[in-house]
Amino acid sequence: MELLNDMALFVEVVKSRSFRGAAETLGMPNSTLSRRISILEKAIGLRLLHRTTRRLELTEAGQLYFDRCRRIVDEARLAHEQLGEMLAQPTGLLRVSLPVDFANTYLAPLIAEFAESYPGISFEFDLTPRRVDLVSEPFDVAIRMGDQPDSHLIARRLALLPRFLYASPGYLERKGEPGHPTDLATHECLRMVGPETSVLMLHHANQTEAIAIAGRFRLNSIGLIRRLATLGLGIAVLAEDIAAEDVSEGRLRKVLPEWQAAPIPVYAVTETRLLPAKTQRFIEFLQECLRRR
Hints:
- α1 (2-16) packs across α2 and α1 crosses α4 (60-88).
- This protein has three domains: 2-87, Arc Repressor Mutant, subunit A (Orthogonal Bundle), CATH 1.10.10.10; 92-157 and 272-292, D-Maltodextrin-Binding Protein, domain 2, CATH 3.40.190; 161-265, D-Maltodextrin-Binding Protein, domain 2 (3-Layer(aba) Sandwich), CATH 3.40.190.290.
- It is α/β, with parallel strands linked by helices and 293 residues long.
- The chain is built from nine helices and 13 strands.
- β1 (49-51) and β2 form a beta hairpin.
- The mean pLDDT is 88.
- Strands 3, 4, 5, 6, 7, 8, 9, 10, 11, 12 and 13 form an eleven-stranded mixed β-sheet that branches. The protein has a two-stranded antiparallel sheet with strand order 1-2.
- The longest helix is centred in the N-terminal third of the chain and has 29 residues, at 60-88.
- It is rod-shaped and about 100 Å long.
């Protein structure tokens, strides 16, 4: 990298026909510039410039080196300018890993809006439940829900989704409506797979209740939990936005509405902080949309 920088300095000196003029253009001390060119000549093993008090002249080796370096420096400048254009209007293929249920029920309209805003971007989405390997697989970003384990990956929090209890009107008619969190111990609760799902923590103002819950159904799919709740098979903990459509159409009703489960964080996870414009814009767009809602 230092060699490339010195090549660019040499090209500017030749174009300016003086160290002083080149130093002013580059915004660096004349003495520093002269020293860098001397180091370059020593590294090459040939003198590139004849220095006199009145003018600079290229040696034969210097002329050859200048002709080659000028093309290299021009190509580098062009590449930099083209990347700037990509930042202004990102293009290319964006590969994203998404949570199945969250993508289907919530992200789909946001993705449509983003695609309309950036017609130069094409998309490849992976909605399998597995956690993709961002190091060995060609994904630009993974959207993940829940707390993320410590790792070398970069996790940017997009939002915290409020979560409440929901059940179908039919279930509540048959089983009765809980009046207090402790009543949930006698209800059928739809739970995620995992040992920590046997105890439900609910919060209201400064109060916290830990309730041992049970039920016939344990699943690894929020989408199926939501569907079973609409069919009257139990009470479910769902993110408010994911349940919104079913609530508005009368398939679900909020239970114990003053009590909340812990909100669930949503993260954009990448391998590095140095992101191409297409990935950066996608993350920023989701972050803004999720925060607004």
